[in-house]
Specification:
The protein is an alpha/beta fold. The protein has a single domain, classed as Rossmann fold, CATH 3.40.50. It has a 5-stranded parallel sheet, with helices on both faces. A two-stranded antiparallel sheet has the order 3-4. A two-stranded antiparallel ribbon has the order 5-6.
């Protein structure tokens, strides 16, 4: 039996998932929310699929160790801690660290493909999709990949057109119908942030009451 309330948060690349979750997490104590990101479950470069032009495609569900992600998510939900080596997106200026995740009353499972696996979807108590228009997403993607991941602009644009967009329409967009809540992030996600924060606060109060009983 799960000990935690699990929230799945998905969205296309550049939709603003990471920023949203950082702001959400900052509203609560460290021991109240645990975030497990699919970004740290990418397979090694030599295991990635290659497109017709010989470019590795990291924007597929098969790019990730989803079975390992599911295992660790279940462990957290059942009260166990998890350790994982940080994935640094091939940025040589960053030294990867060992990430330790401790269980919490609220667990947030986030990533591009958190809704693509039926076994994963069964773990979630609440499913949320962060959405944005294509122009907003590509601008955010360019800024992120140039600054944080040290990718050349030409590479960013090629991957967006040939990997990101096809993957979004095949593996992410169809699952919008499965979401309990869709948060639009074209200009701001503030209203969605307030709503989810209030909901989580109520769940945390419930867990405290259960402990007192």
């Amino acid at each position: 039996m799960k000990e935690s309330y699990v929230i799945g948060i998905a969205g296309g690349s550049g939709s603003g998932k990471t920023t949203f979750i950082k702001k959400l997490k900052s509203r609560f104590k460290e021991n109240e929310i645990c975030v497990i990101s699919q970004d740290n479950y990418y397979k090694s470069r030599n295991e990635q699929e290659i497109d017709p032009k010989g470019i590795k495609n990291f924007d597929l569900p098969t790019s990730l160790n989803l079975d390992e992600y599911l295992t660790d998510l279940n462990r957290l939900a059942n009260g166990e801690s998890v350790e994982r080596l940080e994935y640094t997106f091939n940025n040589e200026s960053i030294d990867p660290e060992i990430i330790k995740l401790d269980p919490a009353p609220i667990i947030i499972a986030e990533g591009l493909f958190v809704f693509c696996n039926e076994s994963l979807k069964k773990v979630y108590d609440l499913k949320i999709m962060i959405d944005a228009t294509d122009d907003k997403k590509i601008i955010r993607r360019i800024k992120r990949d140039r600054i944080e991941r040290n990718y050349p602009l030409e590479d960013v644009l090629y991957r967006y057109e040939h990997h990101v967009v096809p993957s979004y329409f095949q593996y992410i967009e169809p699952h919008k119908q499965d979401a309990d809540i869709i948060i639009n992030n074209n200009e701001t996600f503030d209203v969605g942030l307030e709503v989810l924060s209030a909901f989580i606060s109520s769940k945390l109060s419930e867990s405290v009451d259960d402990v007192k009983k």
